[in-house]
Amino acid sequence: MRHRLKWIGISFVFVFIFSLPFYAFAQEELAPEWAKLATDDAGTVGKGGIEIEFGYTFNYAKKAMDNDWHKEDRGILREHEFGLSIAYGILDNLDISADTGYANLYDHDSDPEKGEGFCDLGLGIKYRFLKLKSLDLELAYITSLSIPTGRFSDSHRLGPSDEFWAWENKIALSRDFGKLTMNMDFGFSLPFGKYRENERGTLSYDLAVGYQIVKWLQPEIEINYEHGFVKDEDDNDSIFLTAGFIMPLTDHFKGKIGLQQTVTGRNTDYTTSIILALTLSF
């Protein structure tokens, strides 16, 4: 475990150092960056624009939260997920997007314990319905469909697919206060299909604040909340704290690096996540 974390840390440092020379090409003054690690923003890519993001997330847990919000021991959980998302601007205020990924899984408390495969396919639309230049404020409606195209779990190995369809609807708000940026989103994901079993939906709320120290570096911090509704069982709650750096090195290249930690919850894993993403815009 320590060996893997060491190499992950070295990779992050390498990407950060490698990215710094791009700053020399950022001659124009960039506006404060709205993109965050886990909270959605209301910005769009613009008509004819393309945005491609390559992501990596490492999740690790050896504790869980019981129904009374108390920690308890669990077997080691370890997940490596590589993600790819593409967004295209149909109009200045309307984007379409697609995302998928590949994951390697290990869960000591599961039988089977290991597995890997492609993740589910997500298709989304973002419509920015309000833009107030005088307040540096934007509002957007985001809807997405998760299609269970990924590998299902079976008796031989784990799979990263949720195994059911899900329709998510979300409102996102972004606003600047000078160099201070704020994002907020809230939404609900509705599962459907014969494989949803007891899942009845997830309510989510996220709040993020960042400060543009210089035009290529914005430290940010977030609080993230999820409530899962479950039929015939106790619901689950998760509260996370997320912190990291957003690096808009040019208007075509952006890096993100950060850490997400479960603060408290119930009927959920107590997870630590490392997040890395590189975004290219055309």
Topology:
Elements: H1 2-19, E1 50-65, E2 71-91, E3 94-107, E4 114-118, E5 121-132, E6 137-147, E7 165-177, E8 180-192, E9 199-211, E10 218-230, E11 236-247, E12 253-266, E13 268-281
Antiparallel strand pairs: 1-2, 1-13, 2-3, 3-4, 3-5, 5-6, 6-7, 7-8, 8-9, 9-10, 10-11, 11-12, 12-13
Fraction of residues in β-strands: over 45%
Please state the overall shape, judged from the principal axes of the Cα atoms: globular
Low-confidence stretches: 1-8, 12-28
If helices are DSSP runs of H or I spanning 4 or more residues, what is the number of helices? 1
> Whole-Å distance between the termini?
38 Å
Main sheet specs: 12 strands, antiparallel, barrel
Number of strands: 13
What is the strand arrangement across the widest sheet?
Answer: 1-2-3-5-6-7-8-9-10-11-12-13
Query: Which percent bin holds the helix content?
Result: under 10%
Structural class: mainly beta
Fold and architecture overview:
- The structure is a single chain.
- By secondary structure, the chain is mostly beta strands.
- It has a 12-stranded antiparallel β-barrel with strand order 1-2-3-5-6-7-8-9-10-11-12-13.
- It is globular, with a radius of gyration of 19 Å.
- The chain has one helix spanning 2-19, and strands at residues 50-65, 71-91, 94-107, 114-118, 121-132, 137-147, 165-177, 180-192, 199-211, 218-230, 236-247, 253-266, 268-281.
Short description:
The protein is mostly beta strands. It is built from one helix and 13 strands; from the N terminus they run αβββββββββββββ.
Observed structural traits:
single chain; 282 residues; mainly beta; twelve-stranded antiparallel beta barrel; globular; disordered N terminus
